């Protein structure tokens, strides 16, 4: 289009838009900033020229787009302007003029294309560099070069039919009308054992055993629009401009074309069309009914089978769907051995297909490309140094034992999708709870909300409404926190955000547990240490799960190992228990302003005995050191980011099947 409009300005004047497309295309390679700079320079030039005109007669300076268009048509104007943008615009203008003169002098479309190509040194070099470098840019360059070759071949064919401006117009009309890439002139692209896809025009003179004429819809076939209607190339005759073709002649030509397509089949012809349910929807072409004559007894001459297909195909009609079905059949235990074998054979045939360059045509059919078929690799660098204690946090312990694969992907590979909004919510509420617990902020909701307001807009939420909704939730969470904080619990706070780092023996392993306790309190009655963990998530464990909650138990273990001695004036307290304070969850339907509190008894009172948590630590350390991260399904799958690639889940079955 750029080529046509730029060259044939007599019939199709160079518009502002086309001029800009040409300048920002590969021939000139300008970008938006270059265009703006060029436009500014041209406007400045025109403004200077207009200063000579008396003020009362002086017209306004024209828009930059119009000046650029004019400069491209008269490139000499650009000589006086400095800068690379003006230089490249001038070179392009001169080149277009040269090509136009060539065409007017009787050159063919192919010769015109060669002139354009030979004058495009920098584009040629760019393409060559990118193609040799490879990668995504290289693939794009290869694709552009392929497209150029196809363009030259089409131009060569147009040349066979007519030269000069008529040939160029034919060529342009042909390129514009192409929905399907034309056959190449070289025979090597035609494979005997492949389906050939082409227009009816191109099928002339050829024959196949089976021919499918697809999409024979009324409106498309016959297509009674005038050919080349934009340029009206069809009207250019030997003796000047001819009358447009009448509709009846167009219809007859379309009918002939359909006849050509339908008679290419030596053995079997399949014609398809869509019949929409709605009256004014798609309907089959009238030509379809002309394929046969119906006798009074309902039989057809010739014998044509008309099949109404009202259902969707069993599988999508694509290579990917075929490969998927063959793969599934080849391992389906319910299929007969013969069927499985046949599916495997077909896969092998598909995998062996190659294009002219020796590249596989259906790489997905090759088992080497299938997930789950590769041998397990060995990791030369261990996930954790076996000579050092295994480091685990309370939450990591829970995660390793629930599903070690989820732990590995989430914590070690760091592939976990984190909702930054949810994380920000939790952080803000925890910080405010810490401020109040440590006495740095009053237990006053208005004060806390004022602080929250100051930072809230910095949190990333997906949408403004989500931010508003979460802010309401944050207010409710702070309200519940204050209700809990100011309530009577028979305990006094002694530390907030208490860090701990203790090393202990768990079975044969040395384990280092580290983390931070949201709050540590002293029980009035016993003097024991009680650990509180504030939760801001939506998930609430059951009562039974809380009794064996690994994170709370690890906190208690840390207390037993001396993690909070300092907060208790150097005297080691007994771990008296721990609790989860669910700030997003109301205590009950009727008590919405107090949080749900879930208690874990002291380690000594735990029915499973204090050893169970050490057993859990030993199990987790063993999994981490042996590096067998296998999926374990359970409640944790409900909010797992890796379900789509987890072989233990239906969503991730494609990984191994
Ligand atoms: S989906 Fe379930 S089994 Fe799979 S990795 Fe996630 S938590 Fe583990």
TrEMBL record:
Residues 144-274 form the UvrD-like helicase C-terminal domain. SUPFAM superfamilies: P-loop containing nucleoside triphosphate hydrolases, Restriction endonuclease-like. It comes from the Bacteria. Keywords: ATP-binding, DNA damage, DNA repair, DNA-binding, Exonuclease, Helicase, Hydrolase, Nuclease, Nucleotide-binding. GO terms for molecular function: 3'-5' DNA helicase activity; ATP binding; DNA binding; exonuclease activity. The keyword DNA-binding applies. Coiled coil: none annotated. Residues 392-646 form the PD-(D/E)XK endonuclease-like domain. InterPro entries: DNA_helicase_UvrD-like_C, DNA_helicase_UvrD/REP, P-loop_NTPase, PDDEXK-like_dom_sf, PDDEXK_AddAB-type, Restrct_endonuc-II-like. GO terms for cellular component: cytosol; DNA helicase complex. GO terms for biological process: recombinational repair. Gene3D superfamilies: 3.90.320.10, P-loop containing nucleotide triphosphate hydrolases, PCRA, domain 4. PANTHER family: DNA 3'-5' HELICASE, UVRD / RECB / PCRA DNA HELICASE FAMILY MEMBER. This is Uncharacterized protein.
């Amino acid at each position: 289009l750029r080529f046509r409009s730029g060259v044939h300005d007599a019939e199709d004047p160079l518009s502002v838009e086309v001029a800009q497309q040409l300048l920002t295309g590969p021939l000139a390679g300008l970008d938006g900033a270059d265009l703006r700079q060029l436009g500014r320079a041209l406007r400045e030039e025109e403004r200077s020229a207009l200063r000579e005109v008396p003020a009362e007669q002086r017209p306004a300076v024209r828009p930059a787009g119009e000046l650029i268009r004019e400069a491209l048509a008269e490139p000499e104007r650009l000589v006086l302007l400095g800068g690379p943008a003006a230089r490249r615009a001038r070179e392009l203008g001169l080149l277009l003029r040269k090509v136009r003169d060539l065409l007017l002098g009787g050159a063919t479309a192919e010769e015109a294309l060669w002139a354009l190509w030979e004058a495009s040194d920098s584009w040629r070099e760019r393409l060559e560099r990118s193609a040799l470098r490879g990668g995504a840019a290289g693939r794009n360059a290869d694709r552009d070069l392929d497209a150029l070759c196809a363009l030259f071949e089409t131009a060569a064919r147009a040349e066979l039919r007519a030269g000069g401006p008529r040939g160029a117009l034919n060529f342009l009309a042909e390129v514009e009308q192409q929905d399907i890439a034309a056959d190449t002139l070289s025979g090597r692209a035609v494979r005997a054992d492949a389906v050939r896809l082409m227009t009816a025009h191109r099928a002339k003179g050829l024959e196949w055993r089976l021919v499918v004429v697809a999409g024979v819809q009324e409106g498309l076939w016959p297509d009674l629009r005038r050919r080349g209607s934009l340029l009206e190339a069809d009207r250019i005759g030997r003796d000047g401009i001819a009358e447009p073709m009448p509709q009846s002649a167009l219809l007859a030509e379309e009918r002939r074309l359909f006849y050509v397509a339908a008679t290419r089949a030596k053995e079997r012809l399949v014609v398809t069309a869509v019949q929409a349910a709605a009256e004014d929807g798609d309907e089959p072409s009238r030509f379809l009914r002309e394929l046969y004559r119906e006798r009074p007894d309902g039989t057809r001459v010739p014998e044509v089978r008309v099949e109404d297909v009202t259902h969707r195909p069993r599988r999508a009609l694509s290579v990917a769907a075929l490969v998927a079905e063959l793969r599934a059949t080849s391992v389906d235990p319910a299929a007969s051995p013969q069927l499985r074998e046949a599916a495997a054979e077909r896969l092998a045939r598909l995998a062996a297909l190659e294009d002219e360059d020796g590249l596989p045509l259906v790489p997905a059919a090759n088992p080497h490309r299938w997930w789950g078929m590769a041998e397990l690799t060995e990791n030369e660098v261990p996930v954790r140094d076996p000579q050092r204690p295994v480091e685990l946090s309370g939450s990591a312990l829970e995660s390793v034992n629930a599903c070690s694969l989820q732990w590995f992907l989430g914590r070690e590979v760091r592939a976990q999708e984190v909702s930054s909004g949810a994380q920000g919510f939790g952080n803000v509420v925890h910080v405010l709870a810490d401020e109040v617990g440590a006495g740095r902020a009053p237990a006053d909701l208005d004060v806390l909300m004022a602080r929250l307001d100051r930072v809230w807009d910095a949190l990333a939420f997906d949408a403004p409404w989500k931010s508003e909704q979460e802010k309401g939730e944050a207010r409710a969470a702070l309200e519940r926190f204050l209700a809990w904080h100011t309530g009577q619990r028979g305990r006094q706070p002694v530390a907030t955000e208490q860090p701990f780092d203790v090393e202990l023996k768990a079975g044969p392993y040395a384990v280092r547990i580290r983390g931070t306790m949201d709050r540590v309190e002293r029980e009035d009655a016993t003097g024991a240490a009680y650990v509180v963990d504030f939760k801001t998530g939506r998930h609430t464990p059951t009562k039974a799960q809380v009794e064996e909650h690994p994170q709370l138990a690890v906190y208690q273990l840390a207390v037993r190992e001396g993690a909070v001695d300092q907060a208790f004036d150097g005297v080691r307290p007994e771990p008296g228990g721990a609790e989860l304070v669910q700030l997003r969850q109301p205590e009950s339907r009727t008590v919405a302003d107090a949080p749900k509190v879930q208690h874990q008894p002291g380690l000594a009172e735990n029915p499973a005995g204090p050893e169970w948590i050490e057993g859990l630590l030993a199990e987790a350390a063993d999994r981490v050191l042996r590096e067998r991260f296998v999926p374990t399904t359970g409640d944790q799958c409900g909010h797992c980011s890796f379900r789509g690639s987890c072989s233990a889940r239906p969503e991730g079955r494609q990984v191994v099947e």
